[in-house]
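User: I'll paste a sequence; please echo it back and then give the predicted structure.

Assistant: Echoing your sequence first, then the prediction.
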Amino acid sequence: MIKKLHILVFALALLSCNQRKEAEANTDLLYFDIKGYFGKEISRLQKLNPIVNKTVSINGGAESKTAKIADWAKELAIFVNADINKTSWKGSFKTKEQDGVDIYTSDNKKIPIKKVSITWNGEKAGKIEIIIDNKNILYQSQDTLTYCPDSLYTIKKQQKIRLLKEKKYSVVGKLK
């Protein structure tokens, strides 16, 4: 009987240790949680199902369309992928708070995300802007991502491939 009681106490202690580690993992973020924020936005927009006036332009030629977005996870994937809380990037971003705007910058050549700025409206993010810069011998691109909850998202990309002309893309989605 006492042996069974010891085994039960040991099992409960072991189980409680695992739960504590899961809770600690979520508070491990050094910077703004872009991945978590956009995960919540994707769920919210999926439920809200707003009408979006979407304009896509390539090198100046634009096409507009009004539609409902079926898959917000796919639509906002580029924002989710701009997560700056990767384990290998810890300590690589400088943090600055200026006039209600949190700014995270990195000059590390191995990190493509160069700047993230969050403009706050009280406790909520009013605008998120992300600058991504990719360079190598053959290819150079710069992306500027902007997200304003309940109103607008933009994705602007400049791309230069060696021996080819520069291309400029943009996607602007206005929520109604």
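The first strand starts at residue 51 and ends at 58. Confidence is low (pLDDT under 50) at residues 4-16, 18-26.
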